[in-house]
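Exercise 7 asks you to align residues with tokens for two separate proteins.
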Amino acid sequence: MPSGKVLLVPGTAASVGIFDPGTDTFSLVSTTISGDGKYTGGVLLPSGKVLLVPQNAEKVGIFDSASETFSLVGPTIAGAGKFLGGVLLPSGKVAFVPSSAEKVGVFDPANNTFSLVGAAIGGVINYFGGVLLKNGKVLFVPFYTATVGMFDPATNKFSTVALSGRDRYRSGVLLPNGKVVFAPGNADNVGMFDPGSAEPAYTVEGGVPDAWRPLLSPHFNKF
């Protein structure tokens, strides 16, 4: 956050976690809501606030880093396992990564409005994490699906790119050359996506023995 503190997104926890690396201290800020899998992923907004992406929670969460307060904003968003991560768009809006949601979610923090856009996706636990590509489109990392998801915020169009196999990856990082690395979840290999290739989705470094969750990258999933 702008203060230099680190926000921990509440999943099962009932509070937002705040770690201050300057003093090595940890504190909690209540979310006022209960339940498991409340939020998955946080997005730092240009305002300095942090948007929490609803997985099972029915409303978007906003954490104000200046006052260290939490609030619920926007309309009720029904359903379980809706979204797994968010991506800040050049417009200032946030694209929600569709997991079990029927469409891509788009939230506008300027007026706290939410909409579902693009073609119906179908299935459950489809994508886990997203990456803003250099062309302005958003890539959704495949989890329980055999496709890479592609969202164009300029047209609100959703499309897919075939990828052999399923139950594979849990996050992605944009490389300087424009390619995207996928972190293996239950896959036995590292995944790569090359938007400039005729066959953009492929795998490298087979025989990975374990599974990982989100990759660590310096800022906004980019090097």
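Second protein for Exercise 7:
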Amino acid sequence: MKNTLFCAALSVTTVVTALSGCNENTPSTAKPSTAKPSIVKKVESDYETVLTVLTEDFIVPAYSNFEAKTAQLSQSIKTQCKVDANNSDENNITIDWQSLQQNWKAVSFAWQDISWLQIGPISSSNRLHRVQYWPDANNAVERGTQQLLSSDSELNLTSLAKMNVGAQGIPALERLIFQASLHQQTDAKALCTSLVLVSENLAGIASAVSTQWSASDNGFAQATIGGLAPFTNQKDALEELVSNVAAYISRIKDNKIIYPLSIQAPGIPMLGEAPFADSSPAHIQHNVAAIRAVLGTSDKHGLCYLLVQNQQQALASQLKNNLETLDELANQLQTSYASALADEEQRLVLTNLSNSLTALQTLLSESIVPALSLNLGFNSLDGD
């Protein structure tokens, strides 16, 4: 499924045939194979243990939570945008923006818990970008929301799905819900039409992805745990998951920290994730928690479990210490990213967080991946 960045240690089984004498009636004897089926089975069992915990205790619940939060936001928007039966004036709608903002944050945080994973159902039908098109170097979200609000034609879910991906997901809803200038310049009917459509579209995507993961018949969870198609085996499934989180470490470091941090205060807040909601610190905290869940916070799951099973206790301890440091630094961030980027002490926290992410990349690439004989996806450890 992937180009390989690392080469696994080659497993070679040597069969030596010893011939006794030259008489054709003298039976030949072969040295027994050195392969140990019990060891192979144990390795496969270890993979299945890790995959089961990751899938059943983290991935499936995370997608289920994302589905629930998007449904709640969609329903809240429909309720607030519903025209009173005693008042047919569609422009006379009062929207509780603060309430919708809290619902949006719940959706965004739920997405941050699982946005590291870019394989499976989320990768089909351009769903990944339709959920969150970010970083947005060409202002696709701004253009998309303007197109929504200024459209003269009747919009529906079908037509929305064909529009610019910037108009379809969490960033579009962020602008519609948090950008005060839009509330002042746009009539309530246009805002409600866009809000209802985008939130319903997002909820539909979340529901489809969650259902496809948890389906009892040919669900992607079954494929992941069993190493079934599209994976070649359980090792391949694990390598894909680790490759995804390794690449995500680079995206957090570069896109969410280094670029907004810039070279001096006050940084560039608009380059951060969710600048209108100003919720990037909370996003980073959710991201770090997700990384810890995948790589392992104890010797009983994730790569920590595999390291212990492979007699690599020292590496397991190093990994846990690194992850604990990341968590401590992330939790030192202020609520407002704009404020954090302008504060020298907070900028130091962000710099240390970036350095810790680099240290984690190095630990993975130079020590853990070789120790576990894993093959990670092309450039997954350098972010390219």
